[in-house]
Protein backbone atom coordinates (compact mmCIF):
# COMPACT_ATOMS: atom_id res chain seq x y z
CA UNK A 1 0.00 0.00 0.00
CA UNK A 2 1.06 3.59 -0.57
CA UNK A 3 1.81 5.98 2.27
CA UNK A 4 1.07 9.37 0.80
CA UNK A 5 -1.48 11.89 2.04
CA UNK A 6 -4.09 10.65 4.54
CA UNK A 7 -3.89 7.07 5.84
CA UNK A 8 -6.42 5.72 8.32
CA UNK A 9 -5.21 3.64 11.27
CA UNK A 10 -8.15 1.63 12.59
CA UNK A 11 -8.60 -1.59 14.52
CA UNK A 12 -10.57 -4.77 14.84
CA UNK A 13 -11.59 -3.71 18.36
CA UNK A 14 -10.64 -1.38 21.17
CA UNK A 15 -7.36 -1.99 23.00
CA UNK A 16 -5.64 -3.70 20.07
CA UNK A 17 -2.67 -1.32 19.92
CA UNK A 18 -3.75 1.43 17.50
CA UNK A 19 -1.87 4.19 19.29
CA UNK A 20 1.48 2.39 19.54
CA UNK A 21 1.07 1.21 15.94
CA UNK A 22 0.39 4.77 14.81
CA UNK A 23 3.46 5.98 16.69
CA UNK A 24 5.59 3.19 15.24
CA UNK A 25 4.42 3.90 11.69
CA UNK A 26 5.17 7.59 12.19
CA UNK A 27 8.66 6.80 13.48
CA UNK A 28 9.38 4.34 10.65
CA UNK A 29 8.20 6.74 7.97
CA UNK A 30 10.20 9.60 9.48
CA UNK A 31 13.30 7.36 9.39
CA UNK A 32 12.71 7.21 5.63
CA UNK A 33 12.85 11.01 5.54
CA UNK A 34 9.10 11.41 5.17
CA UNK A 35 7.18 14.26 6.76
CA UNK A 36 4.48 12.89 9.08
CA UNK A 37 1.61 14.45 11.00
CA UNK A 38 -0.81 12.51 13.19
CA UNK A 39 -4.45 13.31 13.86
CA UNK A 40 -6.38 11.46 16.56
CA UNK A 41 -9.95 11.70 15.33
CA UNK A 42 -11.65 11.61 18.74
CA UNK A 43 -10.17 11.10 22.21
CA UNK A 44 -12.24 9.87 25.15
CA UNK A 45 -11.44 9.39 28.81
CA UNK A 46 -8.27 10.44 30.61
CA UNK A 47 -5.78 9.10 28.07
CA UNK A 48 -3.95 11.45 25.73
CA UNK A 49 -3.12 9.34 22.69
CA UNK A 50 -1.82 12.31 20.71
CA UNK A 51 0.71 13.15 23.42
CA UNK A 52 1.78 9.50 23.63
CA UNK A 53 2.32 9.35 19.87
CA UNK A 54 4.48 12.47 19.97
CA UNK A 55 6.44 11.15 22.96
CA UNK A 56 7.25 7.87 21.25
CA UNK A 57 7.73 8.98 17.64
CA UNK A 58 8.54 12.68 17.74
CA UNK A 59 5.82 13.36 15.16
CA UNK A 60 3.40 16.23 15.78
CA UNK A 61 0.01 14.89 16.85
CA UNK A 62 -3.31 16.39 17.93
CA UNK A 63 -6.89 15.34 18.64
CA UNK A 64 -9.81 16.85 16.74
CA UNK A 65 -12.28 16.25 19.57
CA UNK A 66 -12.00 15.15 23.20
CA UNK A 67 -14.65 13.95 25.63
CA UNK A 68 -14.23 13.18 29.36
CA UNK A 69 -16.01 9.82 29.65
CA UNK A 70 -14.15 6.63 28.58
CA UNK A 71 -16.82 5.61 26.07
CA UNK A 72 -17.24 5.41 22.33
CA UNK A 73 -17.02 9.00 20.98
CA UNK A 74 -20.69 9.27 20.00
CA UNK A 75 -21.86 8.23 23.46
CA UNK A 76 -19.15 10.28 25.21
CA UNK A 77 -20.18 13.42 23.34
CA UNK A 78 -23.85 12.83 24.13
CA UNK A 79 -23.16 12.43 27.85
CA UNK A 80 -20.90 15.48 28.03
CA UNK A 81 -23.12 17.77 25.99
CA UNK A 82 -20.11 18.71 23.86
CA UNK A 83 -20.52 19.08 20.08
CA UNK A 84 -20.31 16.02 17.90
CA UNK A 85 -17.54 16.07 15.32
CA UNK A 86 -18.73 16.41 11.73
CA UNK A 87 -17.40 14.11 9.03
CA UNK A 88 -16.56 17.07 6.80
CA UNK A 89 -14.59 18.70 9.65
CA UNK A 90 -12.45 15.59 10.05
CA UNK A 91 -11.90 15.26 6.31
CA UNK A 92 -10.99 18.93 5.97
CA UNK A 93 -8.47 18.64 8.82
CA UNK A 94 -6.79 15.72 7.08
CA UNK A 95 -6.65 17.53 3.74
CA UNK A 96 -5.37 20.76 5.31
CA UNK A 97 -2.38 19.05 6.94
CA UNK A 98 0.92 20.02 5.30
CA UNK A 99 2.84 16.79 5.95
CA UNK A 100 3.59 14.26 3.24
CA UNK A 101 1.81 11.53 5.25
CA UNK A 102 -1.13 12.19 7.60
CA UNK A 103 -1.94 9.28 9.90
CA UNK A 104 -5.55 9.37 11.12
CA UNK A 105 -6.01 7.29 14.26
CA UNK A 106 -9.56 6.17 14.89
CA UNK A 107 -11.23 5.21 18.17
CA UNK A 108 -12.29 1.65 18.93
CA UNK A 109 -13.02 -0.59 15.98
CA UNK A 110 -13.72 0.37 12.38
CA UNK A 111 -17.49 0.85 12.67
CA UNK A 112 -17.66 2.66 16.01
CA UNK A 113 -19.69 5.87 15.69
CA UNK A 114 -17.32 8.84 15.86
CA UNK A 115 -19.48 11.90 15.28
CA UNK A 116 -22.58 13.62 13.96
CA UNK A 117 -25.12 11.28 12.32
CA UNK A 118 -23.06 8.31 13.46
CA UNK A 119 -20.27 8.45 10.89
CA UNK A 120 -17.44 5.94 11.27
CA UNK A 121 -13.77 5.59 10.44
CA UNK A 122 -14.80 3.70 7.32
CA UNK A 123 -16.89 6.70 6.23
CA UNK A 124 -13.87 8.97 6.68
CA UNK A 125 -11.61 6.69 4.62
CA UNK A 126 -14.26 6.56 1.89
CA UNK A 127 -14.66 10.34 1.96
CA UNK A 128 -10.91 10.83 1.61
CA UNK A 129 -10.43 7.83 -0.70
CA UNK A 130 -7.46 6.84 1.44
CA UNK A 131 -6.04 3.43 2.45
CA UNK A 132 -6.37 1.89 5.90
CA UNK A 133 -4.03 0.10 8.28
CA UNK A 134 -5.99 -2.45 10.34
CA UNK A 135 -4.51 -3.21 13.75
CA UNK A 136 -5.39 -6.72 14.93
CA UNK A 137 -4.81 -8.92 17.95
CA UNK A 138 -2.42 -11.86 17.83
CA UNK A 139 -4.46 -14.47 19.70
CA UNK A 140 -7.67 -16.46 19.40
CA UNK A 141 -10.58 -14.63 17.77
CA UNK A 142 -8.43 -12.40 15.62
CA UNK A 143 -9.05 -14.31 12.37
CA UNK A 144 -12.79 -13.62 12.43
CA UNK A 145 -12.45 -10.02 13.66
CA UNK A 146 -9.82 -9.22 11.06
CA UNK A 147 -11.74 -10.84 8.21
CA UNK A 148 -14.90 -8.91 9.13
CA UNK A 149 -13.01 -5.62 9.31
CA UNK A 150 -11.32 -6.17 5.96
CA UNK A 151 -14.64 -7.17 4.41
CA UNK A 152 -16.26 -3.97 5.69
CA UNK A 153 -13.45 -1.89 4.16
CA UNK A 154 -13.64 -3.76 0.86
CA UNK A 155 -17.32 -2.84 0.52
CA UNK A 156 -16.18 0.75 -0.03
CA UNK A 157 -13.16 -0.28 -2.12
CA UNK A 158 -10.76 0.85 0.62
CA UNK A 159 -7.28 -0.64 0.28
CA UNK A 160 -6.07 -2.14 3.56
CA UNK A 161 -3.11 -3.85 5.20
CA UNK A 162 -2.88 -5.58 8.59
CA UNK A 163 -0.55 -5.00 11.54
CA UNK A 164 -0.48 -7.21 14.63
CA UNK A 165 -0.68 -4.62 17.38
CA UNK A 166 1.04 -6.51 20.21
CA UNK A 167 3.04 -9.63 19.39
CA UNK A 168 3.48 -11.43 22.75
CA UNK A 169 6.88 -11.96 24.31
CA UNK A 170 5.97 -15.63 24.82
CA UNK A 171 3.65 -16.54 21.92
CA UNK A 172 1.68 -19.76 21.99
CA UNK A 173 0.38 -22.15 19.37
CA UNK A 174 -2.59 -19.95 18.43
CA UNK A 175 -0.40 -16.90 17.87
CA UNK A 176 2.04 -18.78 15.65
CA UNK A 177 -0.73 -20.36 13.59
CA UNK A 178 -2.48 -17.00 13.23
CA UNK A 179 0.65 -15.61 11.58
CA UNK A 180 -0.02 -18.08 8.78
CA UNK A 181 -3.80 -17.74 8.63
CA UNK A 182 -4.37 -14.03 9.31
CA UNK A 183 -6.22 -12.64 6.26
CA UNK A 184 -5.22 -9.66 4.16
CA UNK A 185 -1.95 -8.02 3.23
CA UNK A 186 0.51 -8.18 6.13
CA UNK A 187 2.30 -4.91 6.86
CA UNK A 188 4.02 -5.79 10.13
CA UNK A 189 3.83 -6.50 13.84
CA UNK A 190 4.56 -4.56 17.01
CA UNK A 191 6.25 -6.32 19.95
CA UNK A 192 4.32 -6.42 23.18
CA UNK A 193 5.21 -3.56 25.56
CA UNK A 194 6.87 -1.55 22.79
CA UNK A 195 5.52 1.62 24.39
CA UNK A 196 7.73 0.94 27.43
CA UNK A 197 10.87 1.40 25.32
CA UNK A 198 12.78 4.66 25.65
CA UNK A 199 11.63 6.97 22.84
CA UNK A 200 15.10 6.96 21.26
CA UNK A 201 15.08 3.15 21.11
CA UNK A 202 11.48 3.07 19.89
CA UNK A 203 12.29 5.42 16.99
CA UNK A 204 15.40 3.48 15.97
CA UNK A 205 13.68 0.10 16.17
CA UNK A 206 10.26 0.86 14.65
CA UNK A 207 11.45 0.40 11.06
CA UNK A 208 12.19 -3.26 11.84
CA UNK A 209 8.55 -3.92 12.68
CA UNK A 210 7.15 -3.13 9.22
CA UNK A 211 7.67 -4.07 5.60
CA UNK A 212 7.75 -0.58 4.15
CA UNK A 213 10.25 -1.23 1.37
CA UNK A 214 7.57 -1.17 -1.31
CA UNK A 215 5.74 1.89 0.03
CA UNK A 216 6.18 5.33 -1.49
TrEMBL record:
It catalyses: (7R,8S)-7,8-diammoniononanoate + CO2 + ATP = (4R,5S)-dethiobiotin + ADP + phosphate + 3 H(+). Homodimer. Its EC number is 6.3.3.3. Mg(2+) binds at residues 19, 49, 105. Pfam families: AAA_26. Pathway: Cofactor biosynthesis; biotin biosynthesis; biotin from 7,8-diaminononanoate: step 1/2. The gene is bioD. NCBIfam families: bioD. HAMAP family: BioD. One of its GO terms (biological process) is biotin biosynthetic process. ATP binds at residues 15-20, 49, 105-108, 192. Its cofactor is Mg(2+). It comes from Glycomyces paridis. Catalyzes a mechanistically unusual reaction, the ATP-dependent insertion of CO2 between the N7 and N8 nitrogen atoms of 7,8-diaminopelargonic acid (DAPA, also called 7,8-diammoniononanoate) to form a ureido ring. It is an enzyme of class 6 (ligase). This is ATP-dependent dethiobiotin synthetase BioD. CDD domains: DTBS. The active site is at 40. GO terms for molecular function: ATP binding; dethiobiotin synthase activity; magnesium ion binding. It is found in: Cytoplasm. Substrate binds at residue 44. GO terms for cellular component: cytosol. Belongs to the dethiobiotin synthetase family. Keywords: ATP-binding, Biotin biosynthesis, Cytoplasm, Ligase, Magnesium, Metal-binding, Nucleotide-binding. The lineage of its organism: Bacteria, Bacillati, Actinomycetota, Actinomycetes, Glycomycetales. InterPro entries: DTB_synth_BioD, P-loop_NTPase.
Amino acid sequence: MTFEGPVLVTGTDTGVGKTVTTAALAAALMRQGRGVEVIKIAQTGDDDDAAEITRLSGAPARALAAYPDPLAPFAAARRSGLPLLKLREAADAALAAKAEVVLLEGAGGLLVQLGENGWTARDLAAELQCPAVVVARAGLGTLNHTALTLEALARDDIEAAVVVGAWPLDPGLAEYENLTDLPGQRLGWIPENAAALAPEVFRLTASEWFDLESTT
